Amino acid sequence: AGVQCVAFSPAAGSSLKHQKSVAGASQRPEDKGSLMGGRLMATGGYDGKVKLFNAQTGLCFVTFAEHTAPISALCFTPQGNAVLSASQDGSVRAFDLLRYRNFRTFVSPDGLRQFKSVAVDSGGEIVAASASSGGYNIYVWSIQTGNVLEVLTVHESFVSSLQFSPSAGHPGQLISGGWDGKVCVWDLYATKGIAAEPLNCPSSVLSVAFDPRANDHCAASCMSGQVLFFDTSTGQNLGSID
Question: Secretion signal: which residues (predicted)?
Answer without folding.
Answer: none
